[in-house]
Write a structure and sequence with these properties.
Blueprint: H1 10-32, E1 42-44, H2 45-52, H3 56-64, E2 71-73, E3 76-80, H4 81-91
Antiparallel strand pairs: 1-3, 2-3
Length: about 100
Amino acid sequence: MNELIDKDHERIAGLFGRMAAMLKKLESHHEEHRPLLRGERYLTDRDVSQRLRISRRTLQDYRNDGRISYIMLGGKVLYRESDLERMLDDAYRPAFREME
């Protein structure tokens, strides 16, 4: 009953392990978090190309062809998340044949 509990104790080591896992998840979330600006989330060309699984060059072609809206701010290209969602919604083509 009067057992001495130190950092090497099984329960304490387990607690530290769970805390380390939680910290890792929080750090990952923090890296991915994009704060809102005027109620809108802005993405970089890297973010958009990863989400759409296209190259950054293809994304540049989309800009040049007027397929995707963007903001040019001091040489930096940004995209509104809502514009990206709208572009995907407009490109959506429903199945014309029902699967049985």
